[in-house]
Amino acid sequence: MNMRALVVANWKMNPPTFREAKKLFEATRKAAEKARKSNVVIAPPAVFLRELSKRYRGSRVAFAVQNAHWEAGGAHTGEISLRQAHDARAHYAIIGHAERRAEGETDDDVRKKVASALALKMTPILCVGEKERTDGGDQYGVVREQLRAALADVAPAKLGGVLVVYEPLWSVGKDTTMDPREMHQMAIFMRKCIVDTHGDAGRSLKILYGGSVDEKNAGAMLREAEVRGFLVGRASIDAKGFSALLKVIENA
Ligand code: PGA
Q1: pLDDT at 96 (0 to 100)
Q2: Mutate which of 66, 234, 236, 242 to test ligand 1's pocket (most atoms within 8 Å of Cβ)?
Q3: Residue 167 annotated as catalytic
Q4: Looking at residue 176, what is its pLDDT?
Q5: Which residues have CB under 6 Å of ligand 1?
Q6: How far is Cα 78 from Cα 75, in angstroms, rounded to an integer?
Q7: Which stretches in the chain have pLDDT values below 50?
């Protein structure tokens, strides 16, 4: 691989304390600084974001918020805004994660979040993917519609600032990952969908894969599926596993 892979460490609701978050961050930072073929984005729980980002002076690690509201402020108890996350030095935002969609996030919410993130000059990490696999190939229709809705307010000239992750819910938190050749087919399909809605700008769409990525399956996925990187859950909260994953990417 000539280009650096982008590896997004989605810590989800982990670890339980800030003390542990600092330790995990230190280990992740060290691994990221050694890696010559990956750039790392850490998405910690929002409550740890500012404390972690303000201690970090380097440039090899960037920060993401795992979810945030599109409005800059208002009566939304329990929410944080993309504006606030940006102020805490999150330059990326995971949007439309399957676990958020499962909690009721709609395509329309996703569209507003993508537009709001871009307006703040944040990079949306837009997640799409079906909940279940059926024999009828329904995943293609689901992904087409999610992409159309999420990117409806994005001008073709702004597409280069969006990362799209294919992460079907059935592959998240499991023992096996998707077949890389199948991911390759899906990536071709996703580009075609965006070319249909946004014209030629869709050809260079940056596509990542997510769902049970680890050091055992990442190499084949990079080589055979031609993805630009990964959204990583469990392997990102295990310092050794994450470092092993970055090493595999070095040799892919
Ligand atoms: P996983 O999670 O790597 O544990 O499957 C991925 C994600 O949900 O981002």
Answers
A1: 98
A2: 234
A3: yes
A4: 73
A5: 10, 172-173, 210-213, 231-235
A6: 9
A7: none
State how beta strands 5-10 and 38-43 pair: parallel
How far is residue 112's CA from residue 82's CA, in Å, rounded to a whole number?
11
Expressed as residue numbers, the domain containing 169 is 5-250
At 175 the pLDDT is 80
Q: Which residue type does 143 have?
A: V
pLDDT at 1: 52
The pLDDT of residue 174 is: 86
Q: Under 8 Å CB-to-CB from 231, ≥6 apart: which residues?
A: 8, 10, 94, 125, 127, 165, 167, 208, 209, 210, 213
Give a three-class secondary structure readout of 41-72. EEECCHHHHHHHHHHCCCCCEEEEECCCECCC
97 is catalytic: yes
Question: Whole-model pTM?
Answer: 0.97
Residue 134, pLDDT score: 78
Residue type, 125: I
What is the predicted pLDDT for the residue at 171? 87
Choose, from 69, 86, 99, 167, the residue flagged as catalytic. Answer: 167
State both tokens at 147: 């992409």
Q: What's residue 3's pLDDT?
A: 83
Structural domains of the chain, count: 1
Q: How far is the CA of 171 from the centre of ligand 1 (A)?
A: 8
Positive or negative, the Cα torsion across 45, 107, 148, 170? positive
What is the reported pLDDT for 226?
A: 81
Which CATH number do you get for residue 172? 3.20.20.70
Atom 2 of ligand 1, nearest CA residue: 233
